[in-house]
Amino acid sequence: MRLYCLSGDLAKPCYIITFKGLRIMLDCGLTEQTVLNFLPLPFVQSLKLSNLPNFVASIEHDVQMDGELKECCGRVFVDSVPEFNLPMDKMLDFSEVDVILISNYLNMLALPYITENTGFKGKVYATEPTLQIGRFFLEELVDYIEVSPKACTARLWKDKLHLLPSPLCDAFRAKKWRTIFSLKDVQGSLSKVTIMGYDEKLDILGAFIATPVSSGYCLGSSNWVLSTAHEKICYVSGSSTLTTHPRPINQSALKHADVLIMTGLTQAPTVNPDTKLGELCMNVALTIRNNGSALIPCYPSGVVYDLFECLTQNLENAGLNNVPMFFISPVADSSLAYSNILAEWLSSAKQNKVYLPDDPFPHAFYLRNNKLKHYNHVFSEGFSKDFRQPCVVFCGHPSLRFGDAVHFIEMWGNNPNNSIIFTEPDFPYLQVLAPFQPLAMKAFYCPIDTSLNYQQANKLIKELKPNVLVIPEAYTKPHPSAPNLFIEQPDKKIITFKCGEIIRLPLKRKLDRIYIASELAQKILAREVATGVSLSTLTGVLQVKDKVHCIQPCTESVKDEPGTSSMSSAAPSKEDVLKNVKYEYGTIDVDALMKRLAQDGFSNIKMDRTGGNLTLQLVNEDTTIRFEDNETHIICNGKPSTRLKLRDTLLKCLQSF
Length: 657
Description:
- This protein is of the alpha/beta class.
- Helices cover 23% and strands 22% of the residues.
- The strands form eight sheets. Strands 8-7-6-3-2-1-22 form a seven-stranded mixed beta sheet. Strands 9-10-11-12-13-20-21 form a seven-stranded mixed beta sheet, with no helix packed on it. A six-stranded parallel beta sheet has the order 16-15-17-14-18-19.
- This is Integrator complex subunit 9.
């Protein structure tokens, strides 16, 4: 069994394991941090961005590159359509992937790159919320970039990386970066997804049973259990032991795995999500009291549901219940509506509200009472009429390189009373703000990441008790912001890997299950050969199809050849030949053997017992029969026919079936 690491992004993993001749992709996360190297895409032309000076390399300057790179406050940005870093495609051709298992909607954004225009013929499996919310993420991403098109695409800078300042000079696989896929590609890739429910068992091409179990991280998020009759592999990605709106993590299904692959730990290991949520509410309240407005860049689903609830309650407690909140996203309406029909995927507290009946999420109540309003874009019909300040705006994209958030930064950036609050840990907020500098509005970093931190991961591993733990190498090293945080399991065998590596996992197939056809099973006649031990012969044909082994009855029939007499004897069938095979067992009675040898014409036999072993010397035939614990040897220096005759005599002294 081998594992291929196709992505260096620990939060957006993409792995392939080879198992029983299959190639199974675990997640297909898209590295979006590459877009931070590009200038933002405003809805209308930005005077500030348009007037940025060109970057000129100090040596080997290429005039053809003029206009591709812009300089802003000491940073260099690419003036082009944003590009994304795909999972590595040279380690293993995507067309050879048999199955893709997706753990959550954040880890499926590279799916259109993998399944479309690559010759992919495999199958994709995910839970229903993962599919539907993943659709929202993909459609929003396409809409944001297509609504602000660029006239041209910059490419020459990729050939001059050695001349560029950091971080562009350190760009990983820049020539492999790709522009956004089309909406047609999104629809094509999602049409290949097969929906599964929690704890549903699915036979994957006869090689193993795949079961998604709740990971507790977000709506529909799952860990995957791959099991056979003799092996168990668990893939833990994006899990949480905290109590939030998704269904809690199912730990029992992950216990005692032969191999446990763990990834997707928190990107903010030094902070407490509850503490940061409190800081966010406090910063929003202070901003409103200063007659400013708060901008919260966010994704269209996930933590934003909790933010609606907590922030509204906090503002009401602070006497600011008349402050309007706006949720702006091309998929805002679908996201808000869909979240309230997912009772089976929610925590028990949220499920109980459904049976009252009540809305599981309070944002449905806020929408009915106009405390929360949603729009596709800032230029959507009705937004200008309803918009008033001070207010709180939730919109994308968290990278601030495209989407409505770019418009609000340009509109509010010069007012120090306004604030921008970052909650998504995917992007370093100082790099996010770099092309907008100098910026007067306040910036707060309140990362809310509910996935496992290092302490929780260490505790979970001890409880799950895997035979082998497989984790990214970075998790075994002290975290840059907290030297005492890393995965440490001294009692476990740990195998680590890095991006681009292929590692061998210590899982060897020793046994496999074989099925017997019912009509053949009915003919089995077992014979007891020892206390509690019964044996039976089985004559059949072993068939292997889709990795499933099955013994079928022999169905050969012998037909008369043309021109031959019906009276002629037919050749025996395969089954007849096999049925005549006998299997001997038991121990030899020496006295009975001596009598049979005498009956068969052997005389002058000498018996010798030495060291517990019995030896018979047939003097006339110059032959020795030596008996050992589990073996009988006939050492014949005479005619070969003598040895065969002695063999037959010995076999007559044993029981057979």
